[in-house]
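Growth hormone-inducible transmembrane protein
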Amino acid sequence: MFQNIKSIKNIQKQLVKCKSTILNTPSRKFANFSPQNYSNLGGYALIGSGTAGLMYLMYRGQMLAQERYQMPMSQIQQMHFFNRTVQERIRSTMGYFTGGLFATGLMVGLLRNSMLAITNPWILLFGSLGLLIGTQVTNYYQSPILKHLLWGGFISTMALTMVPLISMAGMPVVYDALFATGISMGGLGLVAYNAPSEQFLRWGGALGMGLAGMIGIGIASIFYPSKNLFNIWLYGGLILFCLFVLYDTQQIIYRAKINPYYDPINESLSIYLDAIMIFQRFLLIFMSNRNKK
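Tokens:
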């Protein structure tokens, strides 16, 4: 996997080079935007991936901060796993997770040739952040219409961040990344769902440290571009987010059993963002493998 990493370095150089190209290109040059314009797409892919990653880090940091103040499991009254209410909550959460992924794919298809795909990155960043916060704080039962509108808006912004990278990769590579992501998410989810104990919930601290390390590597890469740092970010991040799938799946089950107020949309965001991060990394890995041939 780590042999012949020159192609990975070339992708990194291309993305960094195209970032400066975009910042210095007049806006009229984007009037004839097309997926084949890879020199521009590389820069927007970099910005889009960074925006999606920042959304994940913001969400994950907030969730880990909240989990610090949870009561010990032994002091919490839990419903049984096979309780009808628990099962309905889990099914509803998985429904929003699946619907979010389907809506993301649909939006990417609809917006692949749209000027919205090259919108101002700051507007996209703050728009995504605002919609994410709005989705989390809106009451699922008291304001269901507003909740779903905010959730749909956040899904749309995440789709926009992925359009340049997907256009640059090409559909054969995208299909491979989708298949790999589906197999990974499905397999890990089944392991966590059928685990006889809640052992993966004890990984929160270690995963938080790993996430902090990914943040540090990302910041360091800005000031010191390095193929080694890029490899750690790419492959280390893939392993980290796969572990988060195990953790988040059991968190959904655990909260479905204990929370008097359960919001399936909020609970689905964790594994939705896990899937987005895993897909992006598989896409970059397969793109590098294609360039080796």
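Residues 6-20+38-70+89-292 form one domain.
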